[in-house]
């Protein structure tokens, strides 16, 4: 996992990355009913807690004046919010560890969440064999992030850029639905079969509860991403959007509980309903933590510079850009641009005039002047700018 973090900034980076990986692995554990992934979430929680304990000690030692103490209080406030996100991920993973059960309808619906999880085996003669993750640049080429690699019976979680893929490796990755078949193609695997075009039966109470849960999952992940972006850019408008999402999560949670209670008579396994309620509560907790994280920005309070430095160094970074006129992005939809699979960047929000549109979908058309807030790999920022920004005029030599 590299060198041990040695200062407050490094510990904050490690804690944030660990909590985000916990969220991804926890939902992957639910999707695949994989206890090994749930166990890794628990291990990551122990590591995150250790990082945050050391961070608190260092922060107290670093405060040599009231001003230092006030600045470090903001760092500790954000650290607590990160810890709560990790705790919520652990609650998700415990649904698998406790064998609560998940309705089959949930796994079907998670295929169409904003980001989905895929498990792909590297086949014979695949183009990825013998190549490192750095060479493959999967996030910018396919939009997919590799969370773990299984070689034989051994898992490697959070693999690094120098990890080389071999025949028979199983990749656990997350990203947009359209990126899955791109990754499968590189791994020599056949494309996923198209879902059957059967007549859709009427929605049951359980179906409605499941649909709400998927929306709650998407909303909680968007809230966390927007919260980190609001800190990085010190943007009160983004913090206000997080507050809006958190309020919406409360409404969704109440609706889900109502539909679960209505579904009780038709449930074959009551534990499935307990699993839904546990997942909903965890997703709402993530939204609450995201809202807490933005308190300093929302109230115009200064943040210690170490927070911004830490957010700039995390594995998945926030980036903002503006759509210039007559660029490839101007007048085209996100779907036409294949923005996620072409750049690896996920658009969290678009500011158009005074209005914010969060989690824009594929049919959303970009226009000149739109301001985009996106998250993704560092090298994906250049790819995004290539679509959105006009080329700088050449400077003639004198």
Summarize the structure.
The protein has helices spanning 8-32, 35-62, 66-97, 104-110, 133-136, 138-142, 177-186, 205-233, 236-263, 270-293, 295-298, 305-312, 334-337, 339-343, 380-388; strands at 116-121, 145-151, 154-157, 170-175, 317-322, 346-352, 355-358, 371-376. The chain is of the alpha+beta class.
What does this structure look like?
By secondary structure, this protein is of the alpha+beta class. The chain folds into 3 domains: 8-109 and 203-308, Methane Monooxygenase Hydroxylase, Chain G, domain 1; 123-186, Regulator of K+ conductance, C-terminal domain (Alpha-Beta Plaits, 2-Layer Sandwich); 316-388, Regulator of K+ conductance, C-terminal domain (Alpha-Beta Plaits). 56% of the residues lie in helices and 12% in strands. It contains 15 helices and 8 strands. The chain has helices spanning 8-32, 35-62, 66-97, 104-110, 133-136, 138-142, 177-186, 205-233, 236-263, 270-293, 295-298, 305-312, 334-337, 339-343, 380-388, and strands at residues 116-121, 145-151, 154-157, 170-175, 317-322, 346-352, 355-358, 371-376. The strands form 2 sheets. A 4-stranded antiparallel β-sheet has the order 1-4-2-3. A 4-stranded antiparallel β-sheet has the order 5-8-6-7, with helices on both faces. A hairpin with a 2-residue loop joins strand 6 (346-352) and strand 7 (355-358). Helix 1 packs antiparallel against helix 2, helix 3 (66-97) packs antiparallel against helix 10 (270-293) and helix 4 (104-110) packs across helix 8 (205-233). The radius of gyration is 21 Å and the shape is globular. It starts with 7 loop residues before the first helix and ends in a 10-residue tail after the last helix. The mean pLDDT is 87.
